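Session log. Operator J.P. requested a structure for one protein chain; no other inputs attached. Running the standard single-chain path with token output.
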Amino acid sequence: MIVPLALLWFTGNFTTAGNDSFSRAPRNCGRSSPTRTALGLTAIPAQIGFLSKRSFDAAIRRYDKLAGSAKPSPYTPTKTSFAPSGRARLAALCEKLRAQGVSPEIVKRLAEMLEQADDLTLGRIRSHALADYWGVPRRAVLEACLWATRTGILDLQWDSICPHCRGAKQTSASLSGIRSQVYCDNCNIDFAVNFDQTVELTFRPNSALRIVEAREYCVGGPQVTPHIVAQQLIAPGEQRQLTLPLEAGRYRLRSLELGDAPAFGRVMSHFDVLREVIAEEDGALVKTIGDAVMAVFRRPVAALRAI
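Structure written below.
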């Protein structure tokens, strides 16, 4: 049986200066109610009043520093643990990477990130995001990461991204391992893989250099879901009306999936159009092949006109 030691409430806030910017005196407050046990009455005041207080204060001051930075770093330097001889191996492989013609500056920044970044950052290294932060061409960073996989610094992975929470719900070392249908346990939705929208190439350190634990933080938070402006949960059979302030004109309403019935209807309409074109050129429909057709014509020129 697990006996709780305390109930804890925590709130945090930043005081604002007159210019609406964050002040450099962030304040946070917490309140705990220890259970009436000897351990609760002695351990909780020490934990909450001293240890947790220092941790909360340090974390919030880091947030304040990031919020006041014109260009926040993509990762926070932290204490890292390399595999045995991992640092020496990284240095040797970086020299090999430079010999392949990769920019020394990119190699230097990549090595610094592998040495300093936390597991959450290194679990999914996104080359384009790094390029934008470093201010270098995206293609150059992507090619550097690909070369790094050849030298043994990085491993590449294909991630299937949930369209709602943007989390990697399926990961494979090759595209052939990506399934067409994926389930997101966080959002409780099924979604179809769309290779140009929901599949992303990312990287992670080779395990011979540094072992990274896969982690997921703040699922569905506003920072990782900028594509969601607002949302409403609608129960089965429930209806909601929404008035959008749109300007006059034509708009297209799109969804992730067309659905079997509408898709079948579109294919049949497609065949109707093809039958008319074939008939106009005095041809005949032989059979349908998926969404294509096989037809015959009296003369080759008629077939060309039908195309």
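Operator note: The beta strands are 6-13, 27-34, 154-161, 168-172, 181-184, 189-192, 199-205, 284-289, 292-296.
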